[in-house]
Amino acid sequence: MLFAKYGAAVVVNDLVSPDDVVQEIQKNGGQAVGNKASAEDGDAVVKAAIDAYGRIDIVINNAGILRDKAFTNMDDKLWDQVIAVHLRGTYKVTKAAWPYFLKQKYGRIVNTTSTSGIYGNFGQANYAAAVSLTNVVSTCSMTDWRAETRYPRVFTRPCPRRRQVQYLRQHRRP
After folding, report:
1. Which structural domains are found in the chain, ordered by start?
2. Rounded Cα–Cα distance for residues 70 and 38 (Å)
3. Closest to 86 (Cα-Cα) out of 109, 108, 117, 55
4. Preceding amide of 99 cis, omega within 30
5. Beta-bridge partners for 45
6. Confidence of residue 61 (pLDDT cuts 50, 70, 90)
7. Do the beta carbons of residue 3 and residue 10 sit within 8 Å?
8. In percent, how much of the chain has pLDDT > 70?
9. Where are the beta strands (DSSP E) in 6-149?
């Protein structure tokens, strides 16, 4: 909602119902469309932006779930669900947006993670692995981006959100 407040046209992607957030953004004078898709269906998320606005400038990978369980009691299903949403979702949405960014010679990616990927947390081996690897993907994709264009901009939290917003305001698309 903060990006919409500052003038961004937003795609609100939610697995269940994006409508409440879309309506709130519109009520406050912003532009927003809703999309119901899994983060793993990155093509659908990016297509919603292209269909609605004709371009995509920023991807914010913020999808997340928790399936807390002590490592001893964790099963493959709990592990796979968290990895699918956090890691695969980040990959799929970023991968779908990547060709547009390259063509535009402009794009921004904000990956939200947590300190659990650095320090760990009891009962969150799956979550810690997913967010830790998301940080690695961010670093590697930024390296690729630098090789392919002169506009590298990939953020990973725990960088403070206000700093991300300030940076994005200063470096608007050409």
Report:
1. 57-159 (3.40.50.720)
2. 26
3. 117
4. no
5. none
6. confident
7. yes
8. 79
9. 9-13, 31-35, 58-61, 108-111
pLDDT tens-place string over residues 110-139: 888 877 777 777 888 888 888 877 777 776
Does the pLDDT at position 160 exceed 60? no
Burial classification of residue 51, based on how many CB atoms lie within 10 Å of its CB (0-12 exposed, 13-18 middle, 19 or more buried): exposed
- Report the C-alpha dihedral over residues 51, 53, 48, 64, rounded to 10 degrees: 170
At residue 97, the pLDDT reads 94
Res 147: pLDDT: 54
Most confident listed range (77-81, 116-120, 152-156)? 77-81
The structure's pTM equals 0.77
Tell me the C-alpha distance between 20 and 10, whole Å: 14
Residues in Cβ contact with 20 at an 8 Å cutoff, skipping those fewer than 6 apart: none
Q: For residue 127, indicate whether it is catalytic.
A: yes
Helix (H) or strand (E) holding 156: strand 154-156
Residue bearing tokens 């969150």: 124
Of 6, 127, 151, 167, catalytic:
127
